[in-house]
Amino acid sequence: MATIAETKKSTEGKMDQSIAAFKNNLAKIRTGRASPGLLDSVQVDYYGSMVPIGQVANVSVLDARTLSVQPWEKGMGPKIEKAIRDSDLGLNPASMGELIRVPMPPMSEERRKEMTKLVRHEGEAAKIAVRNLRRDANDAVKKLVKDKAASEDDQKRAEGDIQKVTDRHIAEIDKMVEAKEQEIMAV
């Protein structure tokens, strides 16, 4: 049976993981600027198996609105181009010899608003995950009190600490959402 300290520690760890997952999801949401992380979700057919683009090519930023993709093997260019085109990112790569340029299309006002809605939705999902972890931790502490492994004073203290950790993580999520929205709305 976990102690109160172990419960708090594991809850904080899980909340940190929720934030990391949220950060990862945010990185996939397109802003007007070019970012190599944008292509992380693209899978390329590499001799019959699907692998992330980062395993068959070097993805880098050429300028603020263009990514460059440099395949590591000759002949992979067309497959990488097809994978980028087929992804749901709305990108149109152009081959220049062995180098593939991926220009970022400018985002319309409507598209920017859609993206901010998506960011808020992701933020809300992350907050829900954090709150669920808080609930689970509080339930674990209550069980310890019920099983006489901890006192009610310990429970009150632990619930206060868990709430502080929860508040800190939710504030971090809010900050990340706000920063991403500003990034998206910056023309």
Total discrete domains: 2
Structural class: alpha+beta
Helices, by number, come to 4
Radius of gyration: 22 Å
Strand content: 15-25%
Query: Which whole number gives the mean pLDDT?
Result: 87
User: Strands of the biggest beta sheet: in what spatial order?
Assistant: 3-4-6-5
- Helix amount: 55-70%
Please count the beta strands (DSSP E, at least 2 residues each): 6
Question: For the report, how would you describe the main beta sheet?
Answer: 4 strands, antiparallel
Can you tell me the residue ranges where pLDDT is under 50 for at least 5 consecutive residues? Answer: none
Compact overview of the structure:
The chain has 187 residues and is an alpha+beta fold.
Comma- or semicolon-separated keywords:
187 residues; alpha+beta; Topoisomerase I, Chain A, domain 4; Gyrase A, domain 2; 2 domains; four-stranded antiparallel beta sheet; 4 helices; 6 strands; elongated; RRF_sf; Ribosome_recyc_fac
